[in-house]
Every structure is written in C-alpha cells, then in structure tokens.
Amino acid sequence: MSNKIHIKPYTGALGAEILGIDLSKKLSKNHFNLITNTLNEYHVVFFRKQDINPSQLVKFGQNFGTLEEHPLIPTLKDFPEIIELKSADDGPGPYARNSRIWHSDMTYTKIPPMGAILKAVSIPESGGNTMFLNACLAYNHLSDKMKTFLSKLKAVHSIVMTSTKEEILSEQGLSRFAKMQKALPPVEHPVIRTHPETGKKCIYVNEAFTSHIKGLNQNESDSILNFLYKHLHNPDFQCRFIWEENSIAFWDNRVTQHFAVGDYASRRTMHRLTIEGTKPH
Ligand SMILES: [Fe+2]
To answer: Among 31, 125, 131, 200, which one is least packed by beta carbons within 10 Å?
Structure first.
C-alpha cells in the first residue's frame, strides 16, 4: 500500500475516505491525529482494502477509546468487543430490521457510544450500502427561533421502540418487553446535543429509538419529532458508502445517523466495534 496519505471527501455534507494508511500496523501518533482530525471534520471516515483479522481490528479500535460489549447482542467467539452483524442467506432478514431505520447507535443507553467501527467481512454482489447523515449540518439549517425552542427540550429514548406491536402482543411479548425494559430502562437526552470536542450543536433524536419529547403532549411530540426526522433525512445532509470486502467505516455516533439499505439478496456479514462515549449535554 502506498504511503502517500490522501483525504478524499465524499459529499459536501459529510464523509471522507482516508487513503495511504495500513491499519494492520501499529497506529503512529501522526496517523492517529490525522484520523481523529478527519473524523471531527467529516464525521465519518472510510478505509479500503484493509485485510485485517479480528485481533488487529480490536487493536485498531482501542486507539480511540474503551471498547464496549453490547448488553444484548451476541458477540464474535473469543472477541467480546466485536458484534457480528450477519444477514439472512437471501437478504437483510429480521435481524437487520433496526438498521433499516435512520438512527445513531444505542441512544437508548445512558451513555451512548462515541463511535463505531464497521468492517465488511462479506458483502452482497450488489446493494447493501450504508447511508450517513450529518445532524450538525441539519441543525445549522434550522431557523434561530426553532433552535431556541428545541434547545430547552429533552427526549426519551428506549430500546422498546424497536419492538413491533405484533411482537409486544405475542405470547412471549410482554415478558420479553419487561426483560428489555429492566435491562435497559428508558433514558433522557437533550434534543440538541453539543459535540464534546468540536463544540458544534446537532439534532439528537432518531426515528429508531426516540419515544417522545418530555413535557409535550403526544400530538405535539409526534409532530415535532416527525418534522425533525423529515428535516434530518434531507439528501442534502447525506453521503452513501458503497462497501467492498475489507472496507472499514468509522463514524462519530454523536453527530451522525446511519441507515443500512436493505436492497440485496444474499449474505452480508459485518464486524462492529463500539467505542465508549460520554453523557450527552
Ligand atoms: Fe447502527
């Protein structure tokens, strides 16, 4: 691999590919700084042709913070830090359901992750791209009056939002629901979050996990959330990553949301690391 470092922005909204770094090697201080600076500027960074094993992936991730183990999702054998996201043989399948809604990861926890690193292990012949959006850019495009109104609000996030009504009402539904609620009780986060490193503000609600805005009645809350989702999902704030085998995406989970497009018809296997974050303010 050539040593010449090059940053290739994907869209004017977010995303940049970093060329010229070999992630199988120990990360130098210079390369660490380059990656964190690029992440703060573009919010999601991409690498290509990184044929690294799970142990090398974990070592790479550890440069950026403590790696979390997910409280509910099963992890890769011998690597508790790696979640294996495996589709069905013939397409996304039921486990990919929550990835096919715009979200930032695990906002249903008190301290959601700072970021995630996702490596493509096997990808479909076509499709299965990931979309990202810049929630800071979306915030900047709100009117000053709306920014002020939202700045005082908190929203409730819950893992229970990922259950369908059919699942909740099924035979095992209520006990499963109660178990999830006990393991991960609902949490509150500000509707507008300030990024701890850049100081930039961003919209911090998502369609997958946000239940309601505190202190508003349900009609008001639904209307404001639907308005915010429509605003966030504007293609002007997005980029799209087309995976190849051994591609890696590293996103800042505090300022981006992502959406795994379910337009494929074969197996898609990804390995994900989750990096510990700080309480949103
Ligand atoms: Fe996700």
So the answer is: 125
Q: How far apart are CA 176 and CA 168, in angstroms?
A: 8
Chain segment 148-159, per-residue pLDDT in tens: 999 999 999 999
Q: Ligand 1 centroid vs 99 CA: distance in angstroms?
A: 5
Q: What confidence tens digit (pLDDT) does each residue in 202-230 have?
A: 999 999 999 999 999 999 999 999 999 99
Q: Which of 246, 241, 242 is nearest to 23 (CA)?
A: 246
Instruction: Break the chain into its structural domains and give their ranges.
Output: 1-281
Q: How far is residue 43's CA from residue 132's CA, in Å, rounded to a whole number?
A: 9
Q: In what order do the strands lie in the sheet with 154-157?
A: 187-190, 154-157, 210-213
Q: What is the pTM of this model?
A: 0.95
* Residue 272 a catalytic site member: yes
Task: Extract the tokens encoding 149.
Answer: 């109104």
Which residue in 43, 189, 258, 268 is the catalytic one? Answer: 258
Catalytic status, residue 78: no
pLDDT, tens digit (0-9, with 9 covering 90-100), for 67-77: 998 767 778 98
Domain covering 1-281 assigned CATH 3.10.450.50 in the classification = no
- Catalytic, out of 31, 43, 105, 193: 105
Catalytic: 281?
no
Question: What is the 19 CA–ligand 1 centroid distance (Å)?
Answer: 24
Examine the residue annotation and report whether 195 is marked as an active-site residue of this protein. no
